[in-house]
Amino acid sequence: MTDTRVFATPAGVTIGPLDDIADGAARNYVLQLRAGRFHGFVVRQGAAVFGYVDRCPHMGLPLAQTLDAYLTPDGSAITCSWHAALFAIPDGRCLGGPCPGQALTPWPVTVRGDAIVTA
């Protein structure tokens, strides 16, 4: 087993049931791939899902200090718990904080049937 961190996944990997994420919430996923471990998270808004690599563009740290705590209290944006940067849920662009002009790295995911699948 390797401890190398990777920043992309192949398409077609089922990562879990859609119902594992409450509407308006986010969940962390770690996938062990041949090349190493991938760390990402998915935000659910109704039937739509938005995936991102769990890495802040400002400092390269994981966004959440507490498991699955990726969203602002009102659920309107993604937040970095280290430096309070805010990111738009649909496209990951920086809305405020120490990351102007930057964005989260997308992790392409989709819903197929009742499951979240890498795209």
TrEMBL record:
<keyword id="KW-0001">2Fe-2S</keyword>
<dbReference type="GO" id="GO:0046872">
    <property type="term" value="F:metal ion binding"/>
</dbReference>
<dbReference type="GO" id="GO:0051537">
    <property type="term" value="F:2 iron, 2 sulfur cluster binding"/>
</dbReference>
<keyword id="KW-0479">Metal-binding</keyword>
<protein>
    <submittedName>
        <fullName>2Fe-2S ferredoxin</fullName>
    </submittedName>
</protein>
<dbReference type="InterPro" id="IPR036922">
    <property type="entry name" value="Rieske_2Fe-2S_sf"/>
</dbReference>
<keyword id="KW-0408">Iron</keyword>
<feature type="domain" description="Rieske">
    <location>
        <begin position="13"/>
        <end position="118"/>
    </location>
</feature>
<dbReference type="InterPro" id="IPR017941">
    <property type="entry name" value="Rieske_2Fe-2S"/>
</dbReference>
<keyword id="KW-0411">Iron-sulfur</keyword>
<dbReference type="Pfam" id="PF00355">
    <property type="entry name" value="Rieske"/>
</dbReference>
